[in-house]
Amino acid sequence: MGVYLSTPKTDKVSEDGENDKLKFGLSSMQGWRATMEDAHSALLDLDNDTAFFGVFDGHGGKVVAKFCAKYLHREVLHTEAYAAGDLGAAVHRAYLRMDEMMRGQRGWRELQALGDKINQFTGIIEGLIWSPKASDSNDRHDDWAFEEGPHSDFTGPNCGSTACVALVRNRQLVVANAGDSRCVISRNGQAYNLSRDHKPELEAERERIQSAGGYIKMGRVNGSLNLSRAIDMELKQNKFLSPDKQILTANPDINIVELCDDDEFIVLACDGIWDCMSSQQLVDFIREHINTEESLSAVCERVLDRCLAPSTAGEGCDNMTMILVQFKKPFAQVKDASGAEQLTGDAGCSETHGVEENGFDKQI
């Protein structure tokens, strides 16, 4: 049986939510895989003006994906860039922060608590024994690398995760990605990729990997990973290289889009979906069902069922997670620097960069 079950687990974890600007639905399913290694975040109120959505596809285990789902949005909020209004810089810093946080005593304890039941129990107990202030650890921000204890020299977990997130603030959409999960926008029914799948064969990825002393074998970095960016400790321990120059890097691509009234929805999904449907096929499928299903999560569930393979031969055997975010029209009014109100939605769309599935930029 290996990494697959004899029959797929088709029960789904689904959720819906909305405010005056956005409506979202999500669903995840374990499928044929022996374990569920995807995780997700969906927050309409990261602050009063900002929503946060993210999908995280684990490899080698589930704990890093769960760690990112728990902490990435919190780190975005804690950055100086966020306080200054620079969402792109804030989320960029938060990605690199994930790797930093998973090293050391507190990182070990948090990862143990997110693991299986035995590890969760031992991790919490040992953490309490060696860290008298563990009860208020969630309120402390900068102590991750400085806590002393039996695991102070912990170098990080032996698994990792992709991370694809989207922040929406008024008419600004900020997409960050590391790995092969993907964000797609539907603009008047046309699908545009807002993230690039980070695969080793891409020229920029191959150049970084080889410059750092790595190699690509059978489409895998050092014969191991079939993606070239991830939140992960593996292949990034060279102390003479900056985080963005390592063989494997968590350094995300950032794409900032000015939304307009032609924009209908965005989709964030792990590669279990994209292995089975192209970006345009998924957008077409959603548009076919979005007005007939009772909820957006029901649309997501339809997609998961559509992608599930009938057997373990071929595509459709991976874990699957998908978030569908629909924009409400017109976009809300916001105040400019002088305090005057300006309409943030209009009929015209300014040019922004999309990403072709083969990795080349195109205009949207």
From TrEMBL:
Its EC number is 3.1.3.16. One of its GO terms (molecular function) is protein serine/threonine phosphatase activity. Residues 23-327 form the PPM-type phosphatase domain. The keyword Metal-binding applies. Residues 345-364 are annotated as: Disordered. It catalyses: O-phospho-L-seryl-[protein] + H2O = L-seryl-[protein] + phosphate; O-phospho-L-threonyl-[protein] + H2O = L-threonyl-[protein] + phosphate. Residues 353-364 have a biased composition (Basic and acidic residues). CDD domains: PP2Cc. Keywords: Hydrolase, Magnesium, Manganese, Metal-binding, Protein phosphatase. It is an enzyme of class 3 (hydrolase). InterPro entries: PP2C, PP2C_BS, PPM-type-like_dom_sf, PPM-type_phosphatase-like_dom. The keyword Mitochondrion does not apply. Signal peptide: none annotated. Its cofactor is Mg(2+); Mn(2+). PANTHER family: PROTEIN PHOSPHATASE 2C, PROTEIN PHOSPHATASE 2C 58-RELATED. Belongs to the PP2C family. This is protein-serine/threonine phosphatase. It comes from Zea mays. The gene is LOC103638831.
